[in-house]
Amino acid sequence: MAGAAGRVVRRWYPSVLRSSLQVPALQLHMSKTAMRASQKDFESALSQVKRLKDPGNEVKLKLYALYKQATEGPCNTPKPGVFDLINKAKWDAWNALGSLPKETARQNYVDLVSGLSSSSDSSSQVKPEADRKQPGYETLVVTSEDSITKIMMNRPAKKNAITIQCLRVHKYQPSSSFSPTHSDVPSEMYNEIMLALKAASKDDSAITVLTGNGDYYSSGNDLSNFTDIPPEGIEEKAKSSAILLRDFVDCFIDFPKPLIAVVNGPAVGISVTILGLFDTVYASSRATFHTPFSHLGQSPEGCSSYTFPKIMGPAKAAEMLIFGKKLTAAEACAQGLVTEVFPDSTFQKEVWTRLKAYSKLPPNAMRISKQVIRNREKEKLRAINAEESRALQERWLSDECTNAVMNFLTRKAKL
Ligand SMILES: CCCC/C=C/CC(=O)SCCNC(=O)CCNC(=O)[C@H](O)C(C)(C)COP(=O)(O)OP(=O)(O)OC[C@H]1O[C@@H](n2cnc3c(N)ncnc32)[C@H](O)[C@@H]1OP(=O)(O)O
Question: Which parts of the sequence belong to the ACB domain (predicted)?
């Protein structure tokens, strides 16, 4: 396997697969014998594949197997051990191609990518407000209209799971190799949400909305964040993640304008806990609210250890935060976490009509009212946030957490 500088990171590979699915740059210097008619198509497919939406693990395995077969021929490595699930799945996929000729594998790879590209071009996934979209965000769609800045989490295929890792984009240079000089794209969602909130706090909008694209509001922390371990080690990763978490939650604590969550579907983990820091929470009748921290060997964040008992009383908060009880939208509304629930069929229409009316209210009055309501708690919330982040830093290093995350990533467990 080539070193980091010579690797191609396919954007949509989960980190757990990424480490071993990375295609060594040097392998992309095709051998002279492979320089046949379809090599150009193959190279173009290799470059095209990086721009595709995540096609799912099954297709990724097919692509991996065809790539290996096309460039190395039949599977020639020892079978990984039974507990090495990811590498075994990859080995099985490659080995299943038997003695398929390299040229056929190359052609099949090209055909597969071409099929994926056309289906992703005609995807029914709407590109909301493409014309009014603010540029520069990879994982969000941010728009400003009618005095409302709308921050929409935009990884619908991953249920809007919130990512940490900074994806590296390598530029393909057909004449030489994949360039080792890559640009770091600010494509991870925690930082992008912070940037969008900071920009919204200064723009001329009266209110700010956070919502999700697709059927989920957000499935919370992207669990593959845990697999992207830096060379400095897992302790360093836990430390930097705790700092990121603290900074992320501080942005919500400090946000100066009315902040509204438009919860379009199920919400999990940190996307639920921070709701206690919003001024208003509108939910679709399809939404659910789930904080399965104990199941994941983790502990509450987002100041929920303070805001939830305050909002719903300690007993109900404990049922959610310790035992992971999932609430329906109606239950969350009855507990005071949600302001109002709307039928899913009319959710968007009713909510946006309401918000447009609110956004016409005098912005300074709304801002001052928010400050009067929230300011006296800010210092306390910051201290709670720091304490929760410290507790999680330790939890992330525990066996309970590691096992729960691995169970999800190897598909043994789902919430
Ligand atoms: C640095 C700050 C850290 C702050 C810490 C916060 C703590 C939390 O937020 S805890 C909550 C963590 N979230 C979860 O545990 C949710 C895990 N996801 C699931 O259980 C399920 O995916 C689901 C119940 C949300 C949805 O199930 P469904 O069957 O409808 O869809 P899937 O096929 O499972 O999902 C589609 C696709 O999306 C990927 N995905 C969904 N959620 C996550 C996630 N949280 N992390 C990583 N990936 C996620 C899922 O793997 C699928 O991907 P593939 O299509 O590639 O298989």
Answer: 38-122
* Nearest atom (ligand 1) to Cα of 271: 9
In one-letter notation, the amino acid at residue 212 is: G
Ligand 1 centroid–CA 77 distance in Å is 32
132 vs 225, more confident: 225
In a domain, 282, yes or no: yes
- Give residue 219 CA to ligand 1 midpoint distance, Å: 5
Q: What is the mean pLDDT of residues 235-251?
A: 96
Which residue's CA is the nearest one to ligand 1's atom 51? 158
Residue 54: what pLDDT? 72
Ligand 1, from 219, 243, 388: best to mutate by most atoms within 8 Å of Cβ? 219
Which CATH number belongs to the domain containing residue 97 in this structure?
1.20.80.10
Q: Indicate if ligand 1 lies below 6 Å from the C-beta of 249.
A: no
Q: pLDDT class for 187, splitting at 50, 70, 90? A: low
For 288, phi then psi, to 5°, come to: -135, 165
Closest to 27 in 3D by CA, of 114, 107, 102: 102
Q: Which domain holds residue 89?
A: 39-117
Bridge partners for 208 per DSSP: 149, 259
Check whether residue 272 and residue 348 sit in a common domain.
Answer: yes
Single-letter amino acid, residue 333: C
244 C-beta closer than 6 A to ligand 1? yes
Q: For the chain, what is the domain count?
A: 2
Q: What are the pLDDT digits (tens) for 5-45?
A: 222 223 333 333 333 333 332 233 333 334 455 788 888 88
Asked if 98 and 144 sit in the same domain, the reply is: no
